[in-house]
């Protein structure tokens, strides 16, 4: 299967050049700046005014984009189609959610100093041990990265050690997130069951219901995305990145030239999971709720679709895809509520069939042409 | 309700027989009207009295009235006439006069007031009718009424009951009545009753014994305890069988849902996320067939087996031609494209048919359960589905093993180029295979329509489980799918009682994950060089 | 009685006043944009796709129908009404986003919407922040009273408690199996019922069985056979079902097939209405019960008019009506009435005006908006008929006022809600006379201190 | 003893050693030693107690009809397939059956597949860079920098395999023959002690074949080379010792002339021809 796919995908080759990255980061920061200015400087009611709702929306898109980048790292470069990345996203989100719940303190409807509301009316008399420490920001934020990282480490260790590959891996990642969804739905788990965690008040002392905080979160997400992107780029352009691509296309071969493939897979998988967790943590305070539906396998598949649509193994493609799809969702669900699923479904079908390299594929082709010229000149000199 | 039994039997002793009634001249309708008017009161106890009165009155229409009352079809018009509604669906209902039985044409539900009853009255009516039926020439009626007597007997009843037992010619009725009598005896602390109840699995009997076991009379108590012990033992065994059956029937559902996938996914390597929606289409086909053939749910169901297969197969072909053929050798891409398709199909059903669930009627021969004994009865609909699953599986095996298509399919999957060069039309084989897989999904839908709701979300609930089953069993191995499905079903049902439904499912999933670690290619992996990626 | 005294308990000066003024200012500034003669915008926030579409899509149609009717009657305050429909697609974060869109983008004057508890919880902060009005039409677990939400569905004391009382007194049930889907509504309801049964009626612990299943649970074999055995112990037994939506069809199918008959073990459901029944073959279910505040079979002319209007609107001869639809019917009329009373659609004005407003319900009585933003409702017990309808077998002599805070939960015993000036508090503690939280808080603090 | 071994091998697991200085112990006898090895897939015995010894610096050709078990044998040596029984020793110190592919590879056993497998998405240059003997743990790889000497080494190999011109091309667009060369090049980058070369000249032109022959014969001596090949002409051109495999075990061994005159061998091959004809 690997070899099959590789032949059709050898275009996924050039590690990102300096310039792509510069362009991407440039565009990103320009966008951040623009939105900020239009939100703060432009008076309300003015056509150019960007209201808090929109800022918040963009913030959400950006966190999705970061998630997509994380998925692209493992799928695009490592060839691991994870249908369970929603799980890492959600766990990161829950870690943040737990912190925000603790921040509510005694301002809950029951005014209980320690227990969140849902625990009070489900008659919990004390805080379960795994909620300890989440009143401290540093601990919670550490957990945002560590919890998903740890899960990925254990799961990946088992899976890669025993060389579960291809579809099998995809399916058990799906099983993982499905099992977690069911588990988090259980109220005994102490994560609020189906209602999840909500009614957040403040983050690091900033009121979550003020527009400035929203703007802040939006910018923070943008920066996080930039950093995540830079990190991923560093990885994929390093020799390690090339080992990943090698693994993706010919795992056995990579072993025979002496690379312990499973360790490389594990390393990248964990990094990706942590990024997903970070994305989740930024997502939650912006949408104001985290509940087990983020674990649903369908969501995880959707993430993969963003990446596919944007273009695998390009990183920026993932970002484009995530923003495009979710923007489309927002528009469609508003404009044609009854029919938007048709549009979404059709989009997925058409892109996979007609545009297998995603939106980024077009750009890539141009790059490849340039590259060939360079190659041919090299030939001449030789 | 005992009151009415007694009364019934009292009448019997007075030589009253409903059958005898028929000859007598029918009383004038004013009396009858009074009887019915007594029913049209708000208080339920009063209605109870009225029912008694009707029962006591020697009117041969009594049974019809009571039956109509029981079915909520005895109603009263604005102008005070009592009518029996013949069909209470839609806005206007055909009615007939309760007294004269003459048809009054259609009436609007606005002009009719139902004479309401509640469960208590319903019980009362059932018993009343049962008592009447105890003397009916119809054996089945006698059986049902005899069964109702279990645990309802008291001393006034004991004496006449033993006479009845003597007279009764039908063995089953006799046994039932004897049990009923024995239960009464045990409750009243007589030893012979205990003996008679030994080994009886009927809950009433068990309750009676356990009460006796804590009774004052030591002899009876010991005997009862002893009897109980053996019963409990017996119950355990039955429960074990029951759990196994539950497991197998759940397993059969999983197998049905997964087997089509085992073909498209296992044999063709296409990850068809729209598989669930193909199942859904099968279920909707069943619904449509039942709409087309109103009143014959059974026939409709039978017909929808080929219909469901065809519909799903055609859609399958459309998918294969329209999308999948362009994604040769990109299995993971097929996942994405077909996911889009599944979204479209779902919303299509929502907009074209309805977002609401559709009613699919269970035909007579599939409803209820097969009574093995008082403690163990197997639900028929699931038994049919179980059988159906096995048949589908067997025929698939035949197709794969014995037919030309099967041969070609295997050839193409093993070495496409070679198969081509040997003159096999690979594209045609692809279409056929995918159609087959999809068609089987349709069959699964037909079966599921008898177990769960027929709605737009039907497919989503099964797609993930299906993938688990196929992967657990080993991709490309139909036997694997069968074994995997059934075993997962049984495991789940064994876990459920002590772990709870949710936890059981989680445990099963974790089990699958760990299992895949141990055997990365499932229960029945394909070995050899061919299998190396 | 005791509750009455509580309600007239001396109030503290509303500490919310300042916050409220701020909110008011916001609200007004938002209003200022809207011109006098352009239409009044009514937001509809119900899922049209995804798993909840099955229940919610009809509610969207209901509101559209009501708006239509209102416009035919000349609209409100001389202005036409305009529906703004969005699709939260059964996705909870999307609910919050859509709510924000309705309030911030479209600047709607009122929103009718949400079904599940989680969707309501998700939008609640948005409505409180942007001071919108939400009418929530579904029976729910209570334990909430927001200044911006009007709960036109039943609170537990308007459905669960009377239903169980009916079973105890009218049917003589002594053993209860509480079967529910594992989410907050069944959890809370069952806890309330357990407390109620044990404390008020001395039902023994072993006579209560509690079981939870996941959403869309489809394999009920084990649980039903468990219920069957539970009912074979010689005491009259009933099942109290808070099983949600899709899981009901297989549940009832299994009940029927395993021969659990309504006469032996009646099942009383709180989430099964006409619409759910329309997906089930009701033949084998006759006699099973449901507790609602409205049934399609209610024999009043208002109801028949409503049904006919609905059938004409949908163009479907066998379209059914159900309780949440009535809730929207009541809610919509209440809001319209309040707007007329206030002479404006301004949120704060409407909030003040609507308390005490009474409009006819469909079962021949009146529904009044209580100070705790819940309404008065009659409680009806219906038995399933073979034509997919319910036959009302019992109903409360008078209407029952919704309790925001249950008297049977330790956390909320001492809480009441009253949104009238000067109290304006959703969780007023009658014991320590302060707004904000139960004495459970002090207890816990004490516990921590030790 | 085995514990000590495991320790020794472990330090290789962590790759502290540079493969150039492979510590393989050949002081007493062969570099590769297979004894009574048997493998069966679903009951079919692909290898049937096979015995084979390769001496240090030897160039050995292995021939045999299809299904004789040639490739499976390589799978076993490189740790891809685990035999049901038998033992496989690299030198007199390393029991290959206790190691996985990367360990074996870093011990200095390089393999070229029957079907040329190169990293099609990567450029020729990168293919060689990855194969290059180096510290192949995660973080060293992550922080690896391209130094001058690495470049020179790669250029050198590029020269030998004549792909200098295509260095920046993705390997995916190379011709079959070029891929074969690239793969051999990757072996060279590994500086292995033992090369396992599976059908190196399939799809090559005459000239390419000759160059391959030169290359392989050139390697022999410094390194041991095992060549599996169908093309008799090629075998004849390079072979010193030839081993004939049939149905998973050694049928004959000796110089090309010896084996080709061996009646069994002839019989087998004629039989094979018949099959192919059929």
Helical content of chain C (DSSP H or I, runs of 4+): 25-40%
> How would you state the average pLDDT of chain D, rounded?
77
Based on CA inertia axes, which overall geometry of chain D fits?
globular
How far apart the termini of chain D lie comes to 53 Å
**Treating each run of at least 4 consecutive H or I residues as one helix, how many helices of chain D?**
11
The side-by-side strand order for the widest beta sheet of chain D comes to 6-7-8-3-9-10
Kindly report the spatial arrangement of strands forming the biggest sheet of chain C. Answer: 7-6-8-9-10-14-15
Kindly provide the radius of gyration of chain D, computed on alpha-carbon positions and rounded to a whole number of angstroms. Answer: 19 Å
**Largest interface, counted with CB-CB under 8 A?**
B-C, 64 and 62 residues
List low-pLDDT spans of chain D: 6-21, 272-278
Beta fraction of chain D: 15-25%
Query: What class would the helix/strand composition of chain D place it in?
Result: alpha/beta
Strand proportion of chain C = 15-25%
Helical content of chain D stands at 40-55%
What is the first-to-last residue Cα distance of chain C?
Answer: 36 Å
Number of helices of chain C: 14
What would you report as the Rg of chain C, rounded to the nearest angstrom? 22 Å
| Oligomeric state of the chains present here | heterotetramer
Instruction: Please summarize the sheet with the most strands of chain C.
Output: 7 strands, mixed
Task: Give an overview of the whole structure.
The complex is a heterotetramer of chains A (382), B (533), C (450) and D (278). By secondary structure, chain A is mostly helical. Chain A has helices at residues 2-8, 18-40, 52-78, 85-104, 117-121, 137-161, 166-185, 211-237, 239-249, 251-256, 261-287, 297-310, 316-335, 340-354, 358-381; strands at residues 197-198, 202-203, 206-207, 289-290. In chain A, the strands form 2 sheets. Chain A has a two-stranded antiparallel sheet with strand order 1-4. In chain A, helix 6 packs antiparallel against helix 11 and helix 12 crosses helix 15 (358-381). Helices cover 67% and strands 5% of the residues of chain B. Chain B is built from 22 helices and 7 strands. In chain B, helix 8 runs antiparallel to helix 9 and helix 20 packs across helix 21. The radius of gyration of chain B is 31 Å and the shape is globular. Residues 1-25 and 528-533 of chain B have low confidence and may be disordered. Chain D is of the alpha/beta class and 278 residues long. Chain D has 11 helices and 10 strands. Chain D has helices at residues 2-13, 70-77, 101-107, 124-131, 138-143, 148-161, 176-190, 206-219, 232-238, 256-261, 263-277; strands at 32-41, 44-54, 59-63, 85-90, 94-95, 109-112, 194-198, 224-228, 241-246, 249-254. A 6-stranded mixed β-sheet of chain D has the order 6-7-8-3-9-10, sandwiched between helices. A 4-stranded antiparallel β-sheet of chain D has the order 2-1-4-5, covered by helices on one side. The longest helix of chain D has 15 residues, at 176-190. The radius of gyration of chain D is 19 Å and the shape is globular. At the B-C interface, helix 6, helix 11, helix 12, helix 16 and helix 21 of B face helix 3, strand 7, helix 8, helix 9 and strand 15 of C.
């Amino acid at each position: 299967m690997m070899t099959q796919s590789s032949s059709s995908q050898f275009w996924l080759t050039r590690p990102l050049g300096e310039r792509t990255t510069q362009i991407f980061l440039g565009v990103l920061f320009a966008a951040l700046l623009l939105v900020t200015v239009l939100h703060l400087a432009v008076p309300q009611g003015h056509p150019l005014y960007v209201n808090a709702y929109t800022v918040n929306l963009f913030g959400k898109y950006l966190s999705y984009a970061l998630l997509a980048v994380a998925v692209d790292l493992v799928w695009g470069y490592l060839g691991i189609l994870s249908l369970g990345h929603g799980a890492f996203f959600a766990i990161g989100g829950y870690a943040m959610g737990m912190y925000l719940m603790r921040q509510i303190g005694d301002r809950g409807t029951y005014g209980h100093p320690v227990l969140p509301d849902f625990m009070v009316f489900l008659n919990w008399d004390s805080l379960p041990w795994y909620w300890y420490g989440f009143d401290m920001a540093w601990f919670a934020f550490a957990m945002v990265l560590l919890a998903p990282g740890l899960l990925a480490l254990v799961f990946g260790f088992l899976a890669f050690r025993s060389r579960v590959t291809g579809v099998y891996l995809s399916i058990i990642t799906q099983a993982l997130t499905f099992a977690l969804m069911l588990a988090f739905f259980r109220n005994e788990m102490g994560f609020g069951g189906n209602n999840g965690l909500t009614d957040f008040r403040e983050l690091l002392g900033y009121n979550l219901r003020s527009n400035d905080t929203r703007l802040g979160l939006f910018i923070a997400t943008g920066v996080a995305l930039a950093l995540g992107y830079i990190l991923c780029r560093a990885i994929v352009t390093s020799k390690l990145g090339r080992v990943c691509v090698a693994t993706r296309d010919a795992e056995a071969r990579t072993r025979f030239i002496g690379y312990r493939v499973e360790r490389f897979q594990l390393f990248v998988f964990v990094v990706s999971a942590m990024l997903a967790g970070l994305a989740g943590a930024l997502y939650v305070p912006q949408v104001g709720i985290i509940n087990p539906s983020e674990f649903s396998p369908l969501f995880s598949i959707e993430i993969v679709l963003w990446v596919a649509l944007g273009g695998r193994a390009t990183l920026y493609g993932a970002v484009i895809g995530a923003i495009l799809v979710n923007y489309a969702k927002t528009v469609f669900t508003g404009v044609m509520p009854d029919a938007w699923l048709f549009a979404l479904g059709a989009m997925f079908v058409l892109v996979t069939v007609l545009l297998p390299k995603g939106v980024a594929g077009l750009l890539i082709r141009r790059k490849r042409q340039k590259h060939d010229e360079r190659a041919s000149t090299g030939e001449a000199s030789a | 309700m005992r009151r009415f039994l007694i009364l019934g039997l009292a009448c019997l002793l007075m030589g009253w027989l409903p059958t005898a009634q028929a000859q007598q001249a029918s009383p004038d309708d004013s009396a009858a009207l009074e009887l019915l008017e007594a029913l049209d009161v708000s208080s339920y106890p009063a209605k109870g009295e009225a029912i008694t009165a009707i029962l006591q009155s020697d009117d041969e229409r009594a049974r019809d009235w009571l039956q109509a009352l029981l079915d909520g079809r005895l109603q009263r018009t604005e102008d005070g006439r009592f009518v029996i509604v013949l069909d209470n669906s839609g806005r206007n209902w055909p009615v007939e006069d309760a007294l004269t039985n003459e048809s009054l044409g259609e009436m609007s539900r606005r002009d009719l007031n139902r004479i309401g009853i509640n469960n208590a009255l319903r019980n009362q009516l059932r018993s009343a009718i049962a008592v009447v039926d105890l003397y009916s020439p119809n054996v089945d009626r006698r059986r049902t009424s005899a069964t109702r007597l279990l645990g309802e007997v008291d001393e006034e009843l004991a004496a006449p009951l033993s006479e009845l037992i003597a007279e009764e010619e039908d063995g089953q009725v006799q046994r039932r009545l004897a049990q009923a009598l024995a239960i009464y005896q045990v409750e009243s602390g007589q030893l012979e009753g205990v003996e008679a109840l030994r080994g009886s699995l009927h809950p009433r009997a068990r309750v009676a014994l356990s009460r006796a076991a804590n009774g004052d009379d030591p002899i009876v108590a010991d005997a009862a305890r002893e009897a109980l012990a053996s019963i409990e033992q017996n119950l355990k065994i039955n429960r074990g069988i029951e759990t196994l059956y539950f497991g197998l029937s759940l397993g059969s559902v999983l197998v049905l849902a997964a087997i089509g996938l085992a073909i498209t996914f296992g044999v063709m390597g296409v990850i068809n996320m729209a598989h669930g929606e193909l199942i859904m289409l099968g279920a909707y086909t069943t619904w449509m067939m039942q709409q087309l053939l109103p009143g014959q749910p059974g026939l409709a169901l039978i017909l929808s087996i080929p219909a469901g297969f065809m519909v799903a197969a055609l859609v399958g072909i459309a998918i294969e031609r329209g999308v999948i053929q362009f994604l040769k050798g990109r299995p993971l891409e097929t996942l994405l494209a077909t996911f889009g398709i599944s979204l479209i199909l779902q919303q299509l059903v929502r907009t074209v048919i309805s977002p609401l669930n559709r009613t699919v009627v269970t035909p007579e021969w599939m409803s209820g359960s097969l009574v093995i004994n008082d403690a163990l009865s197997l639900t028929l609909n699931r038994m049919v589905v179980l059988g159906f699953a096995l048949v589908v599986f067997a025929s698939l095996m035949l197709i794969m093993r014995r037919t030309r298509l099967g041969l070609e399919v295997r050839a193409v999957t093993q070495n496409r180029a070679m198969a081509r060069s040997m003159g096999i039309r690979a594209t045609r084989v692809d279409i056929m295979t995918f159609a087959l897989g999809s068609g089987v999904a349709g069959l699964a839908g037909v079966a599921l329509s008898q177990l769960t709701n027929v709605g737009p979300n039907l497919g989503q609930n099964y797609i993930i489980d299906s993938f688990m089953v196929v992967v657990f069993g080993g991709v490309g191995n139909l036997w694997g799918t069968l074994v995997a499905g059934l075993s997962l079903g049984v495991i789940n049902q064994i876990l459920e009682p002590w772990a709870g439904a949710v936890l059981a499912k989680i445990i099963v999933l974790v089990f699958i994950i760990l299992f895949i670690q141990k055997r990365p290619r499932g229960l029945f992996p394909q070995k050899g060089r061919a299998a190396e990626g | 009685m005791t509750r009455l005294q509580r309600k007239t308990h001396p109030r503290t000066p509303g500490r919310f006043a300042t916050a409220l003024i701020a909110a008011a200012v916001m609200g007004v500034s938002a209003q200022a944009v809207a011109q006098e003669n352009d239409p009044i915008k009514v937001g509809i926030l119900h899922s049209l796709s995804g798993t909840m579409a099955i229940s919610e899509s009809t509610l969207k149609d209901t509101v559209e129908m009501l708006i239509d009717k209102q416009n035919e009657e000349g609209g409100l305050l001389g202005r036409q009404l305009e529906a703004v429909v969005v699709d939260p697609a059964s996705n909870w974060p999307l609910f919050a986003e859509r709510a924000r869109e309705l309030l911030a983008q479209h600047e709607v004057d009122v929103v009718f919407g949400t079904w599940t508890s989680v969707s309501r919880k998700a939008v609640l902060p948005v409505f409180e922040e942007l001071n919108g009005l939400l009418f929530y039409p579904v029976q729910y677990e209570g334990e909430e009273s927001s200044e911006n939400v009007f709960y036109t569905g039943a609170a537990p004391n308007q459905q669960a408690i009377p239903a169980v009382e009916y079973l105890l007194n009218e049917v003589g049930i002594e053993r209860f199996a509480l079967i529910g889907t594992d989410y907050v509504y069944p959890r809370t309801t069952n806890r309330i019922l357990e407390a109620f049964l044990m404390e008020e009626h001395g039902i023994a612990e072993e006579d209560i069985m509690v079981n939870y299943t996941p959403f869309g649970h489809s394999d009920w074999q084990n649980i039903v056979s468990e219920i069957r055995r539970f009912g074979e112990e010689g005491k009259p037994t009933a099942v109290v079902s808070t099983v949600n939506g899709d899981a009901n069809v297989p549940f009832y199918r299994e009940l029927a097939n395993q021969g659990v008959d309504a006469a032996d073990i009646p099942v009383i459901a709180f989430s099964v209405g006409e619409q759910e029944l329309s997906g089930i073959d009701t033949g084998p279910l006759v006699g099973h019960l449901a507790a609602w505040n409205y049934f399609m079979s209610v024999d009043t002319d208002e109801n028949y008019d409503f049904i006919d209007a609905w059938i004409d609107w949908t163009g479907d001869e066998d379209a059914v009506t159900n309780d949440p639809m009535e809730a929207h019917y009541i809610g919509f009329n209440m809001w319209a009435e309040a707007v007329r009373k206030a002479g404006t659609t301004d949120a704060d004005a409407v909030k003040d005006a609507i308390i005490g407003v009474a409009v006819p319900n469909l079962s021949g009585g009146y529904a009044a908006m209580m100070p705790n933003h819940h309404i008065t409702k009659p409680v009806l017990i219906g038995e399933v008929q073979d034509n997919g309808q319910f036959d009302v077998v019992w109903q409360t002599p008078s209407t029952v006022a919704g309790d925001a805070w249950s008297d049977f939960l330790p956390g909320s015993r001492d809480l009441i809600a009253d949104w009238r000036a000067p109290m304006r508090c959703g969780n007023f503690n009658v014991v320590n006379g302060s707004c904000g939280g139960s004495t459970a808080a002090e207890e816990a603090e004490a516990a921590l201190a030790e | 003893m085995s514990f000590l071994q495991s320790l020794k091998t472990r330090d290789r697991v962590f790759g502290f050693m540079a493969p150039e200085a492979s510590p393989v112990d050949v002081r007493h006898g062969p570099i590769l030693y297979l004894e009574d090895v048997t493998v069966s897939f679903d009951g079919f015995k692909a290898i049937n107690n096979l015995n084979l010894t390769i001496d240090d610096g030897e160039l050995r050709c292995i021939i045999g009809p299809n299904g004789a078990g040639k490739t499976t044998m390589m799978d076993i040596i490189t740790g891809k397939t685990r035999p049901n029984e038998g033992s496989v020793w690299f030198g007199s110190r390393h029991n290959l059956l206790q190691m996985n592919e990367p360990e074996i590879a870093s011990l200095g056993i390089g393999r070229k597949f029957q079907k040329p497998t190169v990293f099609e998405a990567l450029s020729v240059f990168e293919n060689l860079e990855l194969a290059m003997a180096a510290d192949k743990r995660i973080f060293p790889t992550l922080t690896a920098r391209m130094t001058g000497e690495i470049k020179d080494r790669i250029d050198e190999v590029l020269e030998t395999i004549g792909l200098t011109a295509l260095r920046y091309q993705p390997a995916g667009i190379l011709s079959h023959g070029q891929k074969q060369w690239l793969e051999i090049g990757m072996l060279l980058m590994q500086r292995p002690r033992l090369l396992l070369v599976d059908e190196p000249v399939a799809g090559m032109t005459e000239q390419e074949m000759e160059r391959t022959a030169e290359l392989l014969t050139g390697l022999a001596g410094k390194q041991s080379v095992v060549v599996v090949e169908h093309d008799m002409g090629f075998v004849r051109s390079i072979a010193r010792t030839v081993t004939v495999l049939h149905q998973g075990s050694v049928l004959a061994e000796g110089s090309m002339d010896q084996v080709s005159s061996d009646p069994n061998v002839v019989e087998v091959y004629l039989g094979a021809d018949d099959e192919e004809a059929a």
